[in-house]
Design goal:
Shape: elongated
Strand content: 15-25%
CATH topology of the largest domain: Beta-galactosidase, Chain A, domain 5
């Protein structure tokens, strides 16, 4: 190898080494990662040891109820050695305490003092008109806090038993429940205080230590937390539900991020987080910190399609912790629907710095599309829904209003289409005069005709660009609108999912195992609309491929929208149908001869006017290019 090759290799090696050096984690980041990994490993090992010993002691106590006092003392010593001051909480009464208001019902387990079941009373499980929708129950969710005792024992709260220390309900219906974790030290305990408002999806959880400096390690200034949850399939269409189920989180300051919804993903965030959301298509479980979550590791894992669960979420994080109890560690749970206005209401009358931005859990599309949804679509939808109309009428009214808003753009597009239709005979003459081999001459003649008639080929496309953001806004809004869930229309029993009229067992690639009727009707209407619009096109040979492509597009939509919400296909069907009606009315009311006369008058008027300097220069440049092309052609013939 020559000298330049060796220099190249040296530069590449220097770049790689430099990049690795710059991007290597700092000592603080490495220490934090090691601390989190060590704490998780210790908690898991201690949990296993605690379960094994607890089971062993339980069996021994049951088998030796009449044993000598010395044996009981030995067992007590073993419990004290394992659990330290929390030995009294190593065993307790099994069972749950239920809290409920008009919106939610939660079950709090005495073991671990954690919520083991959350039900939404205003919603039902899919295909079930009796039972409330259950976000999770039993082992589908776990919440654990790691405690380091004064004797350096690491305990998991999920293995300790709490006692009910009190439950009160005020005159407004707000309920407070205190679950207490006792120790063998007098006046030393840890309270989990749950608060449930009378009419809200938000549940408060306050961790209130009382003289815990005598039971916990003095250097315990943060509280490690592990929160896991499996998300059961709640809707009919698993593929569609998986698309919208994701783990999202918000940084302190307002920025919202998420893990991938399509594949296993993991994030290690050293920045402070305000909330972490375990999100499904229409419902979420959100944990909100009064202060912040620190040094958080989050994981999202899609599960096998044959499982009754679609995703598994895991979070390991830490919270500020004061063992003296001078300052409590406060959290909030949100158990509720992904409803934009419901989530947005939590930021009402709140300063910008304290806003939660939970409405970001509702996907509304890109910035301009989301803006249209927030300013136009959602207020209009809410207005029509407030009239008590059926959801089918609501979507129809929205379609009509949107068409009226876009009418000026549609009128401009149809006007341009009429001009192109009038010019079609002249375009056909140009195409017949210049064969495909003389494409340059054909284009020049076509552009000259357009310039003379005062027609721009792009004038019919530009109005469509203004309509596209509105179409995309509805594309994002309707599949995420929880109001469509469980609403029937004609043959569709649920507009939030597909309306299959035919099903089969063997999946068809890119299509699935069913055919949605609203999607099929939309496709047929789309083909009809394509046929109407293609009638105005010139009949040149090169347009045949374009026509085939135009007819293939509706068929592609059939594959694409077959799994989508029936409500979305219903909207596009109505929109296309109204567009066809508009087109037919415009054609019936427009006189082609009158349009042609106006174009000819404009052409004469432009011809009598002096050309602008720019137009004259462009025309001169075009003539010069043609002259050079002719001279080059003559040289080539020689």
């Amino acid at each position: 190898m020559d000298k330049n090759t060796w220099i190249g290799f040296a530069l590449i090696a220097a770049i790689i080494i430099g990049f690795s050096f710059i991007n290597r984690p700092s000592k603080e980041e490495l220490a934090e990662r090691k601390r989190v990994q060590d704490s998780i490993a210790l908690v898991q090992a201690t949990e296993w040891e605690a379960k094994q010993l607890s089971q062993q002691l339980t069996e021994q106590l049951q088998a030796t109820q009449n044993t000598p006092t010395a044996t009981a003392e030995q067992l007590a010593e073993q419990m004290a050695a394992l659990y330290g001051p929390f030995a009294p909480a190593s065993q307790g009464e099994e069972g749950v305490v239920v809290l409920e208001n008009s919106k939610v019902r939660i079950s709090i387990d005495r073991r671990g003092g954690r919520i083991v079941k959350a039900e939404l009373k205003e919603y039902k499980a899919y295909g079930d008109s009796v039972n409330n929708l259950c976000l999770f129950q039993n082992d589908e969710s776990s919440l654990n806090f790691t405690l380091v005792t004064s004797s350096n024992r690491i305990l998991a709260t999920q293995n300790l038993y709490f006692t009910e220390a009190g439950q009160t309900t005020d005159t407004e219906g707000n309920t407070t429940l205190t679950m207490r974790l006792n120790t063998n030290i007098e006046d030393c305990y840890l309270d989990f205080v749950y608060t449930l408002p009378a009419d809200d999806y938000m549940v408060g959880l306050s961790l209130q230590p009382h003289n815990m400096q005598f039971a916990l390690a003095q250097n315990m200034s943060s509280l490690e937390m592990q929160w896991n949850q499996s998300i059961p399939q709640q809707e009919k269409g698993r593929k569609f539900e998986e698309k919208y189920a994701q783990l999202q989180y918000m940084f302190v300051g307002g920025d919202v991020d998420k893990l991938s919804e399509m594949k296993s993903d993991r994030a290690n965030e050293s920045a402070r987080l305000k909330w972490i959301a375990y999100k499904d298509q229409f419902f979420s479980t959100v944990m909100i910190a009064e202060d912040a979550f620190e040094s958080s590791t989050m994981e999202s894992t899609p599960l096998n399609q044959h499982s009754r669960y679609i995703k598994e979420y895991k979070t390991t994080t830490s919270l500020p912790w004061d063992i003296t109890g001078k300052k409590y560690t406060n959290l909030k749970y949100y158990f509720g629907p992904n409803h934009y206005n419901t989530l947005k209401a939590y930021d009402k009358d709140v300063t910008n710095a304290e806003q939660l931005h939970l409405n970001e859990l509702v996907p509304l599309g890109w910035k301009i599309v989301a803006w249209i949804n927030k300013i136009i679509v959602i207020p209009m939808f809410d207005l029509f829904m407030s009239w008590g109309l059926h959801i089918g009428w609501v979507i129809l009214l929205m379609t009509i209003v949107i068409k009226l808003i876009l009418l000026p753009f549609v009128f401009a597009s149809n006007k341009s289409t009429a001009k192109m239709r009038v010019l079609k005979p002249q375009l056909d003459e140009i195409n017949a005069k210049y064969p495909p081999e003389k494409m340059q001459e054909r284009q020049q003649a076509t552009m000259a005709l357009y310039q003379k008639a005062g027609v721009s080929p792009m004038s019919g496309c530009l109005p469509m660009l203004f309509q596209f953001p509105v179409l995309m806004a509805m594309f994002w809004f309707l599949p995420t609108a929880i109001e469509l869930r469980g609403q029937s229309l004609f043959w569709a029993d649920d507009l939030s999912t597909y309306d299959a009229i035919i099903t089969w067992n063997t999946p068809i690639p890119l299509f699935g195992t069913h055919l949605s009727l609203f999607c099929l009707i939309m496709t047929v209407v789309n083909i009809v609309y394509t046929h109407i619009t293609m009638q105005q096109q010139s009949g040149g040979q090169e347009m045949k491929m374009m026509r085939w492509m135009m007819y293939l597009m509706p068929l592609m939509f059939l594959f694409f929208f077959n799994d989508y919400a029936a409500g979305l296909s219903y909207y596009y069907f109505l929109s296309l149908l109204l567009t066809i009606v508009q087109t037919m009315i415009f054609r019936l009311t427009v006189d082609d001869k009158k349009v042609l006369a106006e174009m000819e008058a404009n052409a004469k008027k432009k011809g009598s006017q002096k050309k602008s300097g720019l137009a004259a220069r462009l025309e001169a440049m075009q003539r010069e290019q043609q002259r050079l092309a002719r001279e080059q052609a003559k040289k080539n013939m020689r």
